[in-house]
User: What shape does this take?
Amino acid sequence: KAGVTQTPRYLIKTRGQQVTLSCSPISGHRSVSWYQQTPGQGLQFLFEYFSETQRNKGNFPGRFSGRQFSNSRSEMNVSTLELGDSALYLCASTPAGGTDTQYFGPGTRLTVL
Amino acid sequence: AQSVSQHNHHVILSEAASLELGCNYSYGGTVNLFWYVQYPGQHLQLLLKYFSGDPLVKGIKGFEAEFIKSKFSFNLRKPSVQWSDTAEYFCAESGKTSYDKVIFGPGTSLSVIP
Assistant: This one.
């Protein structure tokens, strides 16, 4: 099976802009979680989608949003970018979420100038 | 709120040395525990996991971890590290249901010197 794919791999934006990141899960996986990875902070949970519904949300401001499509592909959007949003954004898929082993994608490296 | 702490930010060892990375979690209920590893330039991947049963779990590449419920700990061990074990290691926890989210620790960077 193909692994989790994320596009784009690298992105450079300026403050105030918005950005959309995409994640395609492993075929058959219905849960997609998003994480922000920064040095020293580790992985901070953003949100999880299962069957097109947001099932869990982390402690991020409303500028961070996401959605999931009927084919389980997911997008996350960050509006009004700030310098502190520079990070590696990882998505992970599991068959059903929660207790399952997570399969991670390579991440999207976002740099905000 | 759930949280996971890892004792060391950066560990440097010589090859053949023994490794123990500390992890403590806060969730008071029954938990699932994980160790994930991120080798340089590679995706984050599962090293081992504990769901129930024997508190000593074995993972890939000779790693093992021990769940000690009374100490809220899940420390990772390897008796003899290799240069190829150089990586970032993350401890994580979740509740038992599909509705529980996975919470990661801040990570420990391991450098193994040949």
